[in-house]
């Protein structure tokens, strides 16, 4: 999604050229290119698909909406299995129109996980609940903290349900380091994503995630937390950023790889 | 601030006309009208000044900036005392330019409270740390949760330092009800403020606080939490909203009072 301006073949080429060994994919571009075709393209290139983003949106009260959401999530699990990734990231969904009941919405997510977890396990896919920054709580994700995500995940086996640790969403939270340790202790860190925090936030607050190094987040500090918690998996950089999308995608990917070296692994 | 388009005399007149018994004031309009003149105007009208907003911005590293911030906060305490309110709301301040150290910034706030608390006590003023929504953490307030605010406040006597409970900033937080109880148990709820949460958020996310009843927050629920925690003080409505500021101020104040009756106290 960081370079959504690239076509799927351009993305794969650019990763190979830069020595980027894996890529997190989003459902919409995968569906556009074709799920089987994407799987073959990426497999033939020797790239790992680190995660598929994203399922979720499981807070509907209306039975028909809820059934549609569950069906779409089963499809997302199937897509993940076809792509050869073991992780499907879930964004839980916001409040249904007119509702003010955050607790009820969170319980409906738990109900849905109970249905989706076993389906995912049968296909070798783990669900990774992503807490989103509290500014998204009303319209996008009622799960705002790692603690809330783990409260949900721990109702299920770790190989069915874990969490996504994304710096952009949790960096403000002084309890997050302890929650990362909690997640690691039960093998529930299913992916680790980076984006930097820059201000001012844009209208709608969706597409202002900062390039690594441009903002206020100490990336090495968060990498150290997940490593201390036993995480050895891939690190993804996921930037929703109108300014980056307006640029040449190959250039943005090269810049992102360089920033990753400079601010994360050096 | 909800009706900043009104002059000080218009504000006082409108409160009297609507039967609103108290008003929270902001420093800038008070300074423009004159601190002594405002105090006399409000006192003669029989209105209570519920709080003065706002001191704070105590995170500077530079010694000269830090000294200036402390001096300005002493002035704010003096102004509060002159206005006859016992509560000064504090917005802590964001990260200094170039810093990524949230913990260090929070510790500098604690240092400043140690200097300001006794000064405030001598003048009969309590400091009320306001946790701001985590979307403000970088540029405005490194204190994002009631738990963090109480961790700071509890280093000092309750009659020196407590917290501001504002629905807009904490409604997403499932641990906030327990923290309100914690604050109430030691007499640290120094004020209670309301604003509703509406989306989409505007650019910069400052001036999109929703009119009571327009958004996702159950006001009665939060009122019940502070009451269960023993709070019997005033309830303030504080709306930063470009659309409301563009309207006739008397009309907005009347609407706000009606919404308060409908969504909070009925």
TrEMBL record, chains A, B:
Keyword entries, A-Z: Isomerase
Highest taxon listed in the record's lineage: Bacteria
Domain (Xylose isomerase-like TIM barrel) ranges: 14-255
Pfam families, alphabetized: AP_endonuc_2
Organism of provenance: Streptomyces lutosisoli
GO MF terms held by the record: isomerase activity
Entry protein name: Sugar phosphate isomerase/epimerase family protein
């Amino acid at each position: 999604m960081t370079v959504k301006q690239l076509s799927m073949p351009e993305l794969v080429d650019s990763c190979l050229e830069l020595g980027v060994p894996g890529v997190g994919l989003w459902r919409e571009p995968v569906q556009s290119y074709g799920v089987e075709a994407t799987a073959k393209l990426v497999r033939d290139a020797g790239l790992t698909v680190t995660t598929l983003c994203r399922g979720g949106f499981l807070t509907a009260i209306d039975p028909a909406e809820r059934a549609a959401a569950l069906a779409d999530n089963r499809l997302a699990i199937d897509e993940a299995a076809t792509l050869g990734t073991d992780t499907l990231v879930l964004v839980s969904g916001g409040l249904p129109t007119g509702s003010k009941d955050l607790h009820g919405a969170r319980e409906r997510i738990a109900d849905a996980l109970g249905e989706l977890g076993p389906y995912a396990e049968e296909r070798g896919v783990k669900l990774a609940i992503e807490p989103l920054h509290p500014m998204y709580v009303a319209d996008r994700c009622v799960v705002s903290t790692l603690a809330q995500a783990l409260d949900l995940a721990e109702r299920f086996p770790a190989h069915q349900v874990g969490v996504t640790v994304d710096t952009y969403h949790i960096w403000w939270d002084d309890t997050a380091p302890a929650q990362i340790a909690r997640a690691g202790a039960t093998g529930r860190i299913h992916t680790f994503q980076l984006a930097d925090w820059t201000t001012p936030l844009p209208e709608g607050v969706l597409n202002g995630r900062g390039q690594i190094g441009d903002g206020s987040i100490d990336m090495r500090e968060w990498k150290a937390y997940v490593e201390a918690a036993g995480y050895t998996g891939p690190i993804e950089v996921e930037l929703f950023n109108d300014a980056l999308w307006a640029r040449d995608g190959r250039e943005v990917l090269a810049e992102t790889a360089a920033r990753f070296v400079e601010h994360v692994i050096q």
